[in-house]
Automatic annotation (TrEMBL):
This is Transposase family protein. Residues 552-572 have a biased composition (Basic and acidic residues). Residues 336-357, 543-573 are annotated as: Disordered. GO terms for biological process: DNA integration. Transmembrane segments: none annotated.
């Protein structure tokens, strides 16, 4: 419509039309064009701006816009208010972490006086010294400083405000099983005890530090693929690898010892319930940037063994991995928070009632927690889930498999236990043919060899590629420079008896170097370390956690690694050395027999 038609039909003159157009082209506080919003009757497009300060004899209540004029005239005053309210690092030192209006107003008045404002000038000429205006200004900061305002209400609110609502959504809906999985660690909200015996034979029950639950969950179906309980104070890369291993290898129910605890018919894991998911591997692995997760061996296994992409999100930002965080919360509410030793979700939680005393009283141990965790997670997989339209995770997983969605499985040649913990290093062969020292390699303070290497002095000072199973250091596999396999090298001495991982080996070597433990070639270092932890467990919680973790790992490795092969390898090396000793002894005995016969004949004669 042209202007004359508008004037004729609506009765607006040309001047009013231009004024309406100008209002529509104004920008709001977010720098967006007002558009037709500007045509709403009596809608204010701009804030009121005052040109001069009210004087002392100004009529009561005529202070509109005076505060805005004040902070515009004195920018340092605005800066002081904002920095003090949000506790920012500046020249204004705030003792209060979260300053209240009373103390902020006091600083505001002092700053006004420092700026040279007289008592007959605004704001010192008002009854409340502009306290109400300061309150309104501070309240308005929540709109212009949303993240800083959230920080005043705690770290949780700050984390959510900082990491949500900005940018485009980059996580499209995931439907195919194992397309994306989430991994995280959660410190369980319960106290547990450890039962051990002192060197004198007395049974001791003491409280440990809270332990960690590591889990991997499928985003598409909400199915927990696997988990691992870390009994140490903090989890490491070894624990992350163990969790990955448990999520891939088919699950087996535990032998339950708690009276009344049992698996229901619906309790299961996908690796056991669904054949297509056995040894299933994922396409994308989401975790945070914690040090244990960023370990090179973890990333290498995810890329080389699993063949997945890594999505490393920020640390302590659970909203980036909402599925697994929701699972941890459900597990706590339905399980651990119901225990008498629960610590609750916060120090003032009413469920928290002497958790450490109850852990000792009822002897709630790590073994009990393992059984309970296994049952709870298996039950979770079989329980209808609101996020799955009230279908259980196992049902959703099976339905999508039936609809033709494929699962990639780990190839059979990669299913060996060692592949999840292997590490490749290069070492030179030591030895000295002139001194009679047979060839061996040195790794983490221990000599390794086998019958073939003992009989190969030509390999001295040559480099070997060693394939290390960091989960069991009793045996390592050696290869020549051209790729030829030299066979399994066994730890010489008592190091080859008890299964132990790289972390335990380093801990023992560190204690030995610091003169805190002592052992010779006839003593088992693992047993010596265990006795040391038993003594230290009387003093501190950390040693109790280490002792419990050592005992747990020992039992686990005895089940997972066959001992006959290792014992045979050890015997072969020992037999080779023993045969020499026996030959030497036989030679000495023969010489002694000859001497005895000669002496006897001499006496008779």
């Amino acid at each position: 419509m042209v202007t004359p038609d508008i004037e004729l039909q609506f009765g607006f003159g040309r001047r009013h039309i231009y004024r309406f157009v100008k209002r529509c082209l104004e920008k709001d506080e977010f720098e967006m064009i007002m558009g037709y919003r500007a045509l709403i009757p009596y809608k204010r497009l701009k804030n009121y701006h005052r040109n001069s300060f009210p004087m002392a004899d100004t009529a009561k209540g005529n202070f509109s816009g005076a505060f805005n004029l004040l902070i515009d005239t004195y920018p340092s005053l605005r800066e002081m208010i904002i920095n003090s309210y949000f506790n920012r690092n500046s020249k204004y030192k705030v003792n209060d972490p979260i300053i209240n209006i009373k103390h902020l107003h006091k600083k505001f008045v002092n700053e006004c006086r420092c700026l040279g404002i007289k008592t007959n000038e605004y704001p010192l000429n008002t009854k409340t010294l502009a306290k109400k205006s300061l309150e309104r200004f501070v309240k308005s900061l929540s709109k212009s400083h949303f993240i800083d305002f959230a920080k005043r209400n705690g770290d949780q609110a700050f984390m959510i405000a900082k990491n949500t609502g900005i940018g485009n959504k980059n996580n499209p809906m995931t439907i195919r099983p194992l397309e994306r999985v989430e991994f995280d660690g959660h410190r369980i909200d319960t106290s547990i005890a450890i039962i051990f015996k002192t060197p004198e034979g007395d049974e001791i029950v003491e409280v440990m530090n809270r332990i960690w639950l590591l889990a991997i969950i499928d985003v598409a179906t909400r199915t927990v693929l696997g988990y691992h309980l870390c009994l140490n104070k903090e989890y490491s890369s070894d624990d992350v690898l163990m969790c990955i291993r448990n999520a891939i290898i088919p699950w087996n129910p535990k032998k339950l010892t708690i009276e009344g605890l049992k698996y229901s018919p619906i309790a299961n894991f996908v690796s056991s319930a669904i054949p297509e998911a056995s040894y299933g591997i994922w396409d994308e692995f989401c975790y945070d940037n914690a040090k244990a997760n960023l370990a090179k061996i973890v990333q290498n296994k995810l890329v080389d063994l699993i063949g997945c992409s890594i999505n490393a999100g920020p640390v302590a930002i659970p909203i980036r991995r909402p599925i697994i965080e929701r699972f941890f919360r459900s597990l706590e509410q339905n399980g651990f928070h119901r225990l008498p030793s629960t610590t609750g979700s916060h120090p003032k939680d009413p469920k928290r009632k002497k958790p450490e005393d109850n852990a000792v009283k009822y002897r709630i141990s790590a073994e009990h927690l393992e059984e309970l965790t296994d049952v709870l997670i298996a039950e979770y997989n079989g329980t209808p889930h609101e996020g799955n339209n009230n279908l259980s995770p196992l049902e959703v997983f099976q339905q999508r498999i039936d609809r033709g969605m494929t699962i990639t499985q780990l190839s059979k040649e990669r299913r060996n236990e060692m592949n999840f913990f292997s590490l490749t290093v290069t070492r030179k062969v030591k030895g000295h043919d002139k001194e009679g020292r047979r060839p061996f390699v040195y790794y983490e303070g221990v000599k390794y060899s086998n019958e073939v290497l003992f009989r190969s002095p030509q390999l001295i000072n040559k480099s070997l590629e060693l394939l290390i199973n960091t989960d069991d250091l009793r045996v390592i596999k050696a290869f020549l420079a051209d790729g030829s396999e030299l066979g399994n090298l066994t730890a010489i001495g008592k190091w080859g008896l008890s299964p132990h991982n790289l972390r335990t080996r380093k801990a023992i070597n560190k204690l030995k170097n610091n003169k805190m433990i002592h052992f010779n070639q006839y003593e088992d270092p693992i047993s010596v370390y265990q006795k040391y932890l038993e003594r230290e467990s009387l003093k501190n919680k950390t040693s109790r956690n280490k002792l419990a973790n050592l005992n747990k790992d020992q039992k686990s490795r005895e089940k997972r690694y066959p001992t006959k092969t290792i014992e045979n390898d050890t015997k072969n090396i020992d037999n080779l050395q023993q045969s020499k000793l026996e030959q030497h002894k036989k030679q000495n005995n023969d010489e002694q027999q000859v001497d005895k016969r000669i002496l006897k004949k001499t006496i008779i004669l």
